[in-house]
Each structure stands twice: as structure tokens, then as C-alpha cells.
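Worked Example 4.2. Consider the chain below.
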Amino acid sequence: MDIHEALYTTRMMRRLRPDPIPLDTQARILDAAVRAPNGGNTQRWHFVAVDDRELIREFAQLFRRARAIEYEKFSAGAGPMVATAPGADPTTHAETMCRMQGSGNYLADHFEEIPLLLFVFAIDDLGGANIYPAIWSALLAARAEGVGGVMTMVLRNFKDEVNELLGVPVEEGWEMSAMLTLGYPRGKWGVAANRRPVHEVSSRNGWGKPFGIEVPQPLWP
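Applying the procedure from the previous section yields the following C-alpha cells:
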């Protein structure tokens, strides 16, 4: 797959088929992830793949409870989902949140059908500087394999329960960075069309100064 196709069409897929992901496919996804850049080549990461159906059922219950917490915050005007980007239209933002909630509801309602959960752990990660390149590489590699997914952090609301279920050696400093739900998507890949153009969110030689070129449409394909 062309790198630009992967970059432009990898998006969050929440509607997933229950078909299992072969182990060799999983291996290729993670092998790409561990090639990601990380400070000092410390490789302070660990990935826990979960395909045990009973474990997934337990995580499904935690996921629904954790998600309810986040939407309670949203309804109260708090939490990360409330804030819009500077200059963004609040109505458009609210509509986007409603669409996301709809697809998120599907994920929550069908969580037990997800074929693979990938928990990502790190030590002293400086705000994610070392782990998020690996996560994005995993998602890009998954896209090349026809596998979709979504990165979520809501289970950090129940990190103690997650650590216990997975037997995480927290005394060594390991902390969950995120969880990926992975599976073959029911929907279609496509270029995200709802992005503000480059020249609206970029500056040159100082904040707010013109970037120097307008990009009114995606530059791929």
C-alpha cells in the first residue's frame, strides 16, 4: 500500500466484524509498532494482546462503565470532549460529538464481538512522546492489513482493575497509555473530509502569521 494512502485513509473504525485476526497479521502489526522512533531507543513499552473471550467480556463491562463516566462529564460541561478548537463552530462540534457517540454506542454495545484488544503500556513516557509513535505505527500497519481500529483511553478510569485483570507489574513503573480495539471493519475506508485546511491551522515564523500557501482540498489522491 502506498504510504500516502495509509496516511490519508487510516481513521477510527468502531464498527468491527467478529472475524479473528490471524496471529501472523497481529505479528506484522506489532513488528511495525516496535520500529517506531523512541527517545534514546529505550523501548519502554509493552503490548498485551487480548483475544480471550472471557477477558473481553470483562473488559466490555468496564468499558461501558468508563464510557458512561466520560459522557457524564460531557453532559456536565466538563472533560476533554467539551472543548472546541479555537475558532471552531460550537454547533458543528456538537454535531460531531453526536455522530461519534452514535458510532461509539455501536462499539460499546458490540464490545464482546471485538476480536482483538491491544493494551499499550509504557514507563516514564513524558506525556506520550515515546509511545504514541508506536501506537500510530500499529494503526497504520493495521490499515495496510485491512484491519481497522480505534484508540481509546477511557479504561484509564479503571486502571487498577485493568492492571489486576492483566497482571501488570505496576511496581516496575508500568502504566497503561491506551487500548486499541482491532478488527476487520464493517464500513469503508476514506479520506477524512471534515478537517480544517492546513492554512487555517498552521503559521510560519510566528503564531498567527500566514503559512504562505493555501490548501483548500486534500492533496491526496
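The beta strands are 45-50, 116-122, 148-152, 175-183. The chain is about 40% helix and 10% strand. Compare this with Example 4.1 before moving on.
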